[in-house]
C-alpha cells in the first residue's frame, strides 16, 4: 500500500482511520491529515508523528485517495476548496466521504465534472482495526478506485459494498450502532453498582462480557437466538432478566431508535442546505457533554 492518502478532518473518525491504517502497516510518510484546529493538529502530530496541514490545496497534492471526515455542515466548505485543486489528471484521485447523510451526487456536483466519489459509512471500532464499513460507489468511480478504497478499509476492519439507497439503514445499524452498545454497557455497570459491586468490578465484568459475547457472535457461526438460548436455563436467572427486557419493550425501543437514526441520516443533506443558506433550524436538545 504505497498510495498517498489524505484525510480531511482529524476528529474522532479521521483519527480512527489514521490509527487503523498506521497499525495495519501503512507508512506514516504516505499519510497526511488536513485539520483546521491547531490543538487537534498538535495532538495528532504528537500521537502519530503524521504530517498535519491546515491547507487542503497543498496537502492533497499527490494523494491518490482523499478521505473526507468532517461533520456534514463542513462538507460544502471542504468541497469548495477541493474543487479548485488539481489532481494532475494522471493520479485519478478518488474522493471518499465518510460523512453521514450526504449523497455522492452532492460531491459530484461540487467537484470538477466527472470526479470519482465513493461514499462510506464506517464506525469507530476502526480504532482497533474492527470497523464495519459500508461502501457505495458514486456514478464516476472506477472499479479499480472502488477496489483500492475497499482494500484500504479492509486493513482496518470489514467492508460491505451496498447500493447508496441503503446508506441510511446502514448508518442506523453499524454507523451509530457502537453507541447503542456503549449505552447498554453503561446501564449494566450502573445495575452492577446498584447490586453492590464496586464500579471497577462492575466495569470489568460488563466490558469482558460484551467483548466475549461479541467474539462468540462473530466466530461461533451461531445466531444470536441460538446463543441466547444457550445462556437461558428453564426457569433460571437469565429467563427472569429477559422477561424484564421484553416487558420494558427493548425490541421496540431498538426498532424506534434505528428508524430515528435513519430518518436523521436521510434528512441531513436538506438540513445542511437550509442551515447553510442562513435559515438555520432548531435541532434536538443536546446535553452539555454531547456538544463538541
Ligand atoms: N464518530 C462516529 O462514530 C462516526 C462519524 N461519521 C462521520 O464522520 C464525520 C466526522 O465525525 P467525527 O469524527 O465524529 O467529528 P469530529 O467533530 O470529531 O471531527 C471533525 C474534524 O474535522 C475538523 N474540520 C472541520 N472543518 C474542517 C475543514 N474545513 N478542514 C479541515 N478540518 C476540518 C474539525 O476540526 C474536527 O477535528 C461526520 O461527518 C460523521 O457523520 C461516520 C461514522 C461514524
Ligand atoms: O452521530 C452521527 O451523526 C455519526 C454518524 C454515524 C455515527 N456517528
Automatic annotation (TrEMBL):
It is found in: Cytoplasm. The keyword Transferase does not apply. Pathway: Amino-acid biosynthesis; L-proline biosynthesis; L-proline from L-glutamate 5-semialdehyde: step 1/1. It catalyses: L-proline + NADP(+) = (S)-1-pyrroline-5-carboxylate + NADPH + 2 H(+); L-proline + NAD(+) = (S)-1-pyrroline-5-carboxylate + NADH + 2 H(+). Its main location: cytoplasm. GO terms for cellular component: cytoplasm. InterPro entries: 6-PGluconate_DH-like_C_sf, NAD(P)-bd_dom_sf, P5C_Rdtase_cat_N, P5CR-like_CS, P5CR_dimer, Pyrroline-COOH_reductase. Residues 4-89 form the Pyrroline-5-carboxylate reductase catalytic N-terminal domain. One of its GO terms (molecular function) is pyrroline-5-carboxylate reductase activity. NADP(+) binds at residues 69-72. PROSITE patterns: P5CR (PS00521). One of its GO terms (biological process) is L-proline biosynthetic process. SUPFAM superfamilies: 6-phosphogluconate dehydrogenase C-terminal domain-like, NAD(P)-binding Rossmann-fold domains. Keywords: Amino-acid biosynthesis, Cytoplasm, NADP, Oxidoreductase, Proline biosynthesis. Signal peptide: none annotated. The keyword DNA-binding does not apply. Belongs to the pyrroline-5-carboxylate reductase family. Catalyzes the reduction of 1-pyrroline-5-carboxylate (PCA) to L-proline. This is Pyrroline-5-carboxylate reductase. It comes from Gordonia neofelifaecis NRRL B-59395. The lineage of its organism: Bacteria, Bacillati, Actinomycetota, Actinomycetes, Mycobacteriales.
Amino acid at each position: 500500500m504505497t498510495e498517498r492518502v489524505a484525510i480531511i478532518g482529524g476528529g474522532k473518525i479521521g483519527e480512527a482511520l489514521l490509527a487503523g491504517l498506521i497499525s495495519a502497516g501503512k507508512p506514516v510518510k504516505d499519510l497526511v491529515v488536513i485539520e483546521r484546529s491547531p490543538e487537534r493538529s498538535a495532538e495528532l502530530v504528537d500521537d502519530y508523528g503524521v504530517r498535519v496541514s491546515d491547507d487542503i490545496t497543498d496537502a492533497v497534492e499527490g494523494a491518490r485517495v482523499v478521505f473526507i471526515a468532517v461533520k456534514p455542515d463542513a462538507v460544502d466548505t471542504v468541497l469548495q476548496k477541493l474543487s479548485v485543486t488539481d489532481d494532475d489528471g494522471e493520479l485519478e484521485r478518488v474522493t471518499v466521504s465518510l460523512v453521514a447523510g450526504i449523497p455522492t451526487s452532492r460531491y459530484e456536483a461540487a467537484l470538477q465534472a466527472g470526479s470519482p466519489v465513493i461514499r462510506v459509512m464506517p464506525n469507530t471500532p476502526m480504532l482497533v482495526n474492527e470497523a464495519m464499513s459500508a461502501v457505495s460507489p458514486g456514478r464516476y468511480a472506477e472499479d479499480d478506485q472502488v477496489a483500492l478504497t475497499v482494500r484500504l478499509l479492509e486493513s482496518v476492519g470489514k467492508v460491505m459494498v451496498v447500493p447508496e439507497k441503503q446508506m441510511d439503514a446502514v448508518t442506523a445499524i453499524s454507523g451509530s450502532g457502537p453507541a447503542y452498545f456503549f449505552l447498554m454497557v453503561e446501564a449494566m455497570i450502573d445495575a452492577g453498582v446498584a447490586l453492590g459491586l464496586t464500579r471497577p468490578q462492575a466495569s470489568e465484568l460488563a466490558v469482558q462480557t460484551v467483548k466475549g459475547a461479541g467474539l462468540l457472535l462473530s466466530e461461533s457461526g451461531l445466531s444470536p437466538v441460538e446463543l441466547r438460548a444457550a445462556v437461558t436455563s428453564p426457569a433460571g436467572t437469565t429467563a427472569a432478566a429477559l422477561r424484564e427486557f421484553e416487558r420494558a419493550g427493548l425490541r421496540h425501543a431498538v426498532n424506534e431508535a434505528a428508524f430515528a437514526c435513519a430518518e436523521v441520516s436521510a434528512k441531513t443533506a436538506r438540513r445542511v442546505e437550509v442551515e447553510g443558506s442562513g435559515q438555520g433550524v432548531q435541532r434536538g436538545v443536546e446535553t452539555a457533554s454531547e456538544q463538541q
